[in-house]
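Example A, followed by Example B.
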Amino acid sequence: MCFGLHHRNKNNHIFKIKGMNQIAVLEPSLELLPQGEKGDLLYSNLQEFKSILNANPKAQWIHTNKYAGNAKYISIHVIEDLLNKLFPFWEVKQNGQAQILGNSVVVSVELRVFNPLINQWISYAGIGAVPIEVKSGAHPTDFTKISPKAMHKKVPAAMSYAVKNAAKKIGRIFGSHLNTKDSI
């Protein structure tokens, strides 16, 4: 279930955004546009906004996963900070329950961001999977040998991968092109 969100701006005005499948009750307003550290607007039109989204991520945000063929990635903490910085409101909705496929936990999410320039919510689908830990020497699909804390650790990890997967669809700044050689 998805609930409505509220936002209180610096002037203490409260804006209410209705839940899923309802139209936001907001007039386009500079009050909702994110501001930088010095109080200046991060963007004020779609071209500026697209330029930010399509910028490459900062080098210090990028890490390498030596266990995944040296794939590059951005941590979930940076992704969440970017979402907070670029959008006045955002939310994640898990689609159904975590599923077990093969020897992995799989989570599907919908990442919703509110774009104040067009006064609309935009949704991005994401999926994440992590292998289930089994006791040493056990076959990877022997679920009678699952480590006691495996699901406690692996479901949230799959969720964070799903959120990162959805965020990549927003633009390059979220890491969409980190592991590709082709670009236009």
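Example B, a separate protein, is given below in the same form.
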Amino acid sequence: MMGSRNHGISIWAGRYHRHHEAAFVCMLMALALPGIARSQEQSQLVDTGVILSAKLVERSADLNRMIGVTPPFWMPSSEDIARLEGQLKPYLEGVGTPKAKVIAAKLGRYKRQYLGYTDAGKKRIFVNSFCHWKEDWFWRDSVIIVKDGGTCFFRVHYDLSSSQFEQLEINGDA
């Protein structure tokens, strides 16, 4: 794999190996900057992944365009994530696609990134999920955007007020 990291954007390109070789391009939007204070300004690790802080999300205008999140940004609480997680598997099982059912069956193997944003005055959470990660990867402080890779990568938006999921996107196979 080759990669570069520069104050703001990290780009990774490489090959994804599973049953067949599938090439994909992974783009990391680096969000962390030195000297970030604790509290709402620092991301929080949870069992299923990481809640990215509002300050980290605000610092990347490119991210907004890529994944369709809009300000004002906010940091979901661990309680918000627990409620979302309690509904994620049943939601995936109820979606009428075989790929969603594959993901639901293996959901515990995925790591997730949670970003709080606002759309038309409603608080929403963008959930970015992936099945392969390394503890030392940038996934804890950077949003991982991957093209291809199949069911290993999916994204979904969650409306906090209605407790509804929307816009499920599952990557295609290369």
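On Example B: Residues 80 and 86 are 10 Å apart (CA to CA).
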